[in-house]
Amino acid sequence: MSSLESKHLSHPEKLRPGAAVLLGALGVVFGDIGTSPLYAVKVSLSGFASLNEQHILGVLSLLIWLLTLVVSIKYVVCIMRADNQGEGGVLALMELAKAKLQGRRKWIYTTFGLIGASLFYGDSVITPAISVMSAVEGLGVVSHTLEGWVVPLSLLILACLFAIQSYGTGAMGKLFGPVMALWFVVIGALGLWRIVQTPQVLQALNPVWAVQFIAEAPWEVFLLLGAIVLAVTGAEALYVDMGHFGRSAIRRVWFGLVMPCLAFAYLGQGALLLRDPAAIKNPFFLLAPDFMLLPLIVLAAIAAIIASQAVISGAFSLTRQAVQLGYWPRMQIEHTSASTEGQIYLPRVNFLLFLAVMLLVIGFGSADRLAHAYGFAVTGTMLMTSLLAFRVLPLQSSGFRRLIWLVSLTVFLVIDVLLFSSNTLKVFEGGWLPLGIGLAIFTLMITWNLGREKLHEALSEEQHSLAEFMQSLEDYPPVKVPGTAVFMSMLYGTVPPALLHNLKHNKVLHEQVLFVTVQTARVPYVPFHERYEIERLNHSSWQVQATWGFKQEPNVPQMLEQLAQDMPEINLEPLQISFFMSRQTVLVVRKLPLIARFQRRIFAFMARNATRSTRFYKIPPNRVVEMGMQQEI
After folding, report:
1. What is the rounded distance in angstroms from the CA atom of residue 626 to the CA atom of residue 488?
2. Which residue ranges does the record assign to the K+ potassium transporter integral membrane domain (predicted)?
3. Nearest CA to 230 among 383, 49, 35, 53?
4. Is-contact 237 311, C-beta < 8 A?
5. Which of 94, 34, 464 is nearest to 261 (CA)?
């Protein structure tokens, strides 16, 4: 293996899921769904005027079977098969769905993917707020005088969480993994203790209770789905974070520990309520005997922090995919692991999430109020994932297997439509929040993508053939200076504006010239040996097309180092290279309809605030010559 190849980060799916990887997955991936017992049963049953056995067993049966169908079967068994070279998430799935499609059908699946991604950001904002507040509200069980401390303590805990994000998910997993293992064991043991006291709660495992409940009160159950769905929040994070730890690790941890402990915790709360319906005021914390209450509150607060980590990690991963696929401006992306590609930190995303979560805690003030807003984002993303999977998974099989996939995915789609429809009724009770966040993110994604297309069209109209231009320079050669010039070009095969400006103002050309165009593949990882394609233009100039996957960060100097090994005739000594880049200032044409002009102004603003291309491509600033230019769109 070459020194360059040894630097190439490994994909997590290629790692053997040993104890460290399993513990890391437990700490980062399962926090969100693992803290749902804090509020799911309480919110689902608190709407009944008087609780009886039918209510409790019916809701519990619905909850357990929803957890089984949606998380265990749909996500862990089925959806995780739709991986893009080991990567999960709605954008990775979108790229699979768009494969070999053109025109309108391609845009339909693009829309599904972008809607799902946009709603996931709403989930990323709500989850930290509701999880931490639910845990801290346990203080109210100890003493009513402590209820006033819920918001300040929640703000403090969340501030600490966002402050340590730069240490990365690997460090998070090492710290959080043992805590989450303890959390699941504790809630499972407490639930089992209550089940032993009231074993009739085990009747809820029989789906007949759920079916009877639906048959007797279909409209009430439809409304209840908006609350019961809180038990499956975090399912999408399992899929998004698959690229961090691998499919095998997530499956093993889910079936081996998480699912059994969650089932015990939910059934235990039901057992408690069968004995004492008044415990509905906080059935989770009342699971514990008095001497364990304070330790459980502390453990719940820590687990809530970890719950937030699952969606924060997912937001980082999703944003990088959006940047590389051309749906979001360039952003600073930092690797936090020397061995695993998927573990990253995005400072700007971290700050925006921090700001939004803080405002949410202050604005809503309690977990119960936030619960109305929660389900809309979660079920919307789940629905988009199912629609995309309906295109991808059946194509991986044929014959009878394909029929099985179509039937299974149809069932999942029906469930998702019911869950989403139930939550749309809560738009005016708090659902407007994730809807607003999702709509804003979706608009910005579409604006950036369309703006890039318009910019490319405008540049293409003014471009000339690079091969013909370089041939003309052979006929009328400019003054040559020592060294190698690397011109970064947006469009392959065309003359980069920086070259024209250099010849116009400096009237010189380097002895050797490379024209480099960077493109993003529709797969997450491009092998190191397939990094570039090179074409000779004449005896002293070449054009290079460099390709990275949408889960990789372009590193042009590293690519040139590889090129120097493969083609030693090109002088690529770092101190002999000068990089020439165009910096476009986007101007908006005034003679446009109001909406189009406004959208292009948003694009221009986003372009001005994008991370500099020198930093994004890892190019040393002291080797860069930047040529400014203006471009109307």
Report:
1. 10
2. 22-471
3. 35
4. yes
5. 34
What secondary structure letter does DSSP report for 283? T
Which region, left, alpha or beta, applies to residue 57 given φ > 0 means left and ψ of -120 to 50 means alpha? alpha
Question: Around Cβ 407, how many Cβ atoms within 10 Å?
Answer: 9
Calculate the CA dihedral of residues 106, 107, 112, 113 and round it to 10 degrees. 80
Nearest CA to 248 out of 67, 83, 93 is that of 83
Q: What are the backbone angles phi and psi of residue 198, rounded to the nearest 5°?
A: -135, 75
> By C-alpha distance, which of 596, 594, 534, 602 is closest to 570?
534
Going by C-alpha positions, the residue among 98, 48, 32 that lies closest to residue 239 is: 32
CA–CA gap between residue 427 and residue 570 (Å, rounded)? 62
380 close to 410: Cβ distance less than 8 angstroms: no
The CA-atom distances, in angstroms, between 605 and each of 121, 444, 456 are 21, 11, 17
Closest CA to 388 of 119, 120, 92: 92
Task: Name the architecture of domain 17-450.
Answer: Up-down Bundle (1.20)
Distance of CA 207 to the CA centre of its chain: 33
Site of tokens 């000339």: 464
- Pairing label, strands 344-345, 334-335: antiparallel
User: Residue for token digits 């015990």?
Assistant: 264
Tokens found for residue 199: 């074993």
Question: What's the whole-model pTM score?
Answer: 0.86
Instruction: Say if residues 262 and 246 touch (Cβ distance below 8 Å).
Output: no
Three-class DSSP labels, 183-227? HHHHHHHHHHHHHHHCHHHHHHHCHHHHHHHHHHCHHHHHHHHHH
- The phi and psi torsions of 83 (rounded to 5 degrees) equal -100, 145
| Residue the block writes with tokens 């109210």 | 140
- Block mean pLDDT (10 aa), the chain, length 633: 38 58 84 91 87 93 96 94 85 87 84 94 89 86 80 92 79 78 96 96 95 92 92 87 83 95 97 93 92 92 84 84 90 72 81 94 85 86 94 87 93 95 88 91 94 84 84 87 93 90 89 94 87 91 93 90 92 91 83 84 90 90 86 77
CA gap 458, 461 in Å, rounded: 5
Helix-then-strand count for the chain, H and E: 26, 8
Q: What order do you get walking across the sheet with 541-548 strand by strand?
A: 532-538, 541-548, 508-520, 479-488, 577-587, 624-632
The beta-carbon contacts of 353-359 under 8 Å, at least 24 apart in sequence, are 353/124, 353/125, 353/128, 353/162, 353/312, 353/315, 354/158, 354/159, 354/162, 356/125, 356/437, 357/125, 357/128, 357/129, 357/158, 357/162, 358/155, 358/158, 358/159
What span, in angstroms and rounded, lies between the C-alpha atoms of 410 and 396? 16
Cα dihedral 279, 280, 281, 282 sign = positive
Query: Look-up: residue for tokens 């709603």?
Result: 119
For the chain, domain boundaries: 17-450, 463-632
| Residue showing tokens 């090129």 | 563
Distance CA 147, CA 303 (A): 20
Cβ proximity of 26 and 169 under 8 Å: no
Cα–Cα distance for residue pair 529/531, rounded to 1 Å: 6
